Amino acid sequence: MASSSFSPAGPQVFNGEGYHIWVxxxxxxxxxxxxxxxxxxxxxxxxxxxxxxxxxxxxxxDERTKRHKAMSCIQNSVSDVIFTRIIxxxxxxxxxxxxxxxxxxxERTRQQQLLNLRRDFENLKMKEEETSAFNEARIVEKVIxxxxxxxxxxxxxxxxxxxxxxxxxxxxxxxxxxxxxRRASRLEEHQEGALQARTNTAYKGKKAWRDKPKNDAARRExxxxxxxxxxxxxxxxxxxxxxxxxxxxxxxxHVERVCKSKTKSR
Length: 266
Hints:
By secondary structure, this protein is an all-alpha fold. The chain contains eleven helices and no strands.
């Protein structure tokens, strides 16, 4: 419920002009007195049930009175000329909708107006006597306004060194093109540097693998055995190693596989 100590000033009387302003002020005014729901919904209060209390009777009467209060607010907020257009309305919602339809139009009429405006815009054509001449400064201004964010530094630099109101379009384009060339060059150098770094890393890894020292067994396999003067086996496994002990004859200087005693016994 609205506070009894708050009395907002009524909206200016609507005389047919500035409806979009009047309707906002009028809606706020009705909300301040808890009357907007009556205008917006237009719902009749439910009838009293049997044996109502005094409080229920009083509340029901207040709800019915709200319709008359809202109607009075609307009627007193319009001029006599506008009042004649809602004089036949029986509820505040009917009066509100009547004013909205006449001065703002229904949703259907607004859509139709929008379509008409769009059609008129699309059919716009330059007449023979019209010209489309633009001065150099206007063209430069338009170009600068459409540039992406990465050109802000260059534009700021130009503003510090030149008067953009007298700069030629070709000069602006050349300055922007030079910046793009430098940017592309830096990007290419960066890519080449990254590629070279990857190549060097791969080469170092390959060289390190190639130069990795061989283990002892691999080195010995490439050496000449001092016992038999042959290659391909380590000296300690040579058949003719003088320190080797034959498992057949139990003598030193050879292994069982080349033992002569074993060959004779066969």
